[in-house]
Design brief:
With about 400 residues, the chain is α/β, with parallel strands linked by helices. It folds into three domains: about 170 residues, FAD/NAD(P)-binding domain; about 120 residues, FAD/NAD(P)-binding domain; about 80 residues, Enolase-like, domain 1. It contains eleven helices and 25 strands. Strand 5 and strand 6 form a beta hairpin. Helix 1 runs parallel beside helix 8. The chain is globular, with a radius of gyration of 22 Å. The two termini are about 45 Å apart. It holds the Pfam family Pyr_redox_2. GO terms for molecular function: oxidoreductase activity. Its cofactor is FAD. Keywords: FAD, Flavoprotein.
Length: about 400
């Protein structure tokens, strides 16, 4: 059996470790467009801030590929997949054959078609280690930085460079920051915290045109800058599979084992769609924990095992200047909100199930809420009045607690 993995990030690592749970010896080739050992992508902002190093960013030990019998082909892209021949062609013209293929090519930053953007000299995206290195080289103490996008990527970039530049302004057409994961009230708590660090926000507005190093806004004002960071979202890399007939929507469609609509070809990670169990809807869940689990399940199935990927939910655990933010699931339902200085909590219930939460400033025991959502535990089987205010195991039955703690239910 020959395995080939396209991609070298979280889903690929999950696949390798899934494969080796079943198949200890068959060769694995990992093709990566990046030239690096697998690394933790969320840490690139901490690299910029000087809080970590490239060595510490490695997602697995230096010996990972050797230990798992993998051949890493780094710095090469895949330009063609031929499912009939079970072969891929690399950018250097070489071919690789496979028996089972995992496509884990991730996503690409979206660059909006704004008039004059092509003429902006110093513009960057912020998604990869190379992006962080390029930005590090470009910024200076007297640099005014404009960031397009107040989502996770834009705000982490702002945090990473804040102390190294003169000013950071973040602009977004949304009414509040982090619109994909927070409600307005929660976003205001985080925004207030970030503003205290000197970062300025321009919300409910957009750039209509760039005139050199000036951004002309929809409301007519002009923002001058020295360096532009584009962080308005990402697009799943689906074109290679789409052009050979794989079923795609926004992302690549897979079953609960990561198998695509094409024989012997699997997909995992940010380029795929998953069933969000908190809503029952298919959607792209471009999140690190989901990518790993999906990759692991795919690897196990590729090697002949059986572990379904069937508990995916949108989840985020992130911090901004020391303020921790945890979110999960859907916000469609009956809500319970508590607020205090620097702390915001919203939990959402629907049809006798916890379906989502936002925890800002206090994420203690959030895993209990995540467990309730993922495992679709009916709330009338737990002491919800107790758990609503303070998540704790005592709210569960004795048998449920035993299972959660790894024991045998009685």
């Amino acid at each position: 059996m020959k395995y080939v993995i396209i991609g070298n990030s979280t889903a690929a690592v999950g696949c390798i470790e899934g494969l080796r749970q079943i198949d200890k010896t068959s060769p694995i080739a990992v093709v990566s467009v990046e030239k690096y050992h697998t690394y933790s992508r969320p840490l690139i902002s901490y690299l910029l801030a000087g809080k970590t190093t490239e060595r510490k960013m490695k997602y697995r030990p230096e010996s990972f590929y050797k230990d798992n019998g993998c051949k890493l082909i780094a710095g090469k892209s895949v330009i063609k997949i031929e499912p009939d021949k079970k072969a891929i062609t690399l950018s250097d013209g070489k071919s690789l054959g496979y028996d089972k293929l995992l496509f884990a090519a991730g996503s690409t930053p979206f660059v909006p078609p704004i008039k004059g953007l092509d003429e902006v000299t110093h513009k960057y995206t912020f998604m990869s280690l190379d992006d962080a290195k390029a930005l590090e080289q470009a910024i200076a103490k007297d640099c005014r930085v404009l960031i397009l996008g107040a989502g996770l990527i834009g705000l982490k970039c702002a945090e990473g460079i804040n102390k190294k530049v003169q000013s950071v302004t973040v602009i977004d057409m949304a009414q509040h920051i982090l619109p994909s994961i927070l409600d307005a009230a929660g976003a205001e708590v985080v925004k207030s915290h970030i503003e205290k660090k000197g970062i300025r926000f321009v919300l409910s507005d957009s750039v209509q045109e760039f005139q050199g190093n000036s951004a002309v806004l929809a409301i007519g004002k002009t923002l001058d800058f020295d360096l532009l960071v584009i962080a308005v979202g990402v697009r799943p890399n689906i074109h290679l599979l789409k052009e050979i007939g794989a079923k795609t929507v926004r992302g690549i469609v897979t079953d609960c084992y990561g198998q695509t609509s094409l024989p012997s070809i699997y997909a995992a990670g940010d380029c795929t769609e998953s069933v969000d169990v908190s809503t029952g809807e298919n959607r792209v869940l471009a999140l690190l924990p989901n990518a790993y689990i999906q990759g692991e399940c795919a690897g196990i199935h590729m090697a002949g095992g059986n572990k379904p990927y069937d508990k995916a939910i949108p989840m985020n655990a992130i911090g901004f200047f020391g303020l921790h933010v945890l979110t999960a699931g859907s916000y469609d339902g009956e809500e319970y909100i508590t607020k205090s200085a620097g702390v915001y909590k919203r939990i959402v219930v629907k049809d006798n199930h916890l379906v989502g939460f936002i925890l800002i400033g206090d994420g203690a025991r959030a895993g209990i809420y995540t467990h309730l959502i993922k495992d679709r535990i009916p709330l009338d089987t737990v002491d919800f009045e107790l758990i609503k205010d303070k998540p704790q195991l005592i709210a569960f039955s004795q048998s449920a607690r035993s299972k959660m703690l790894g024991g045998v239910a009685r």
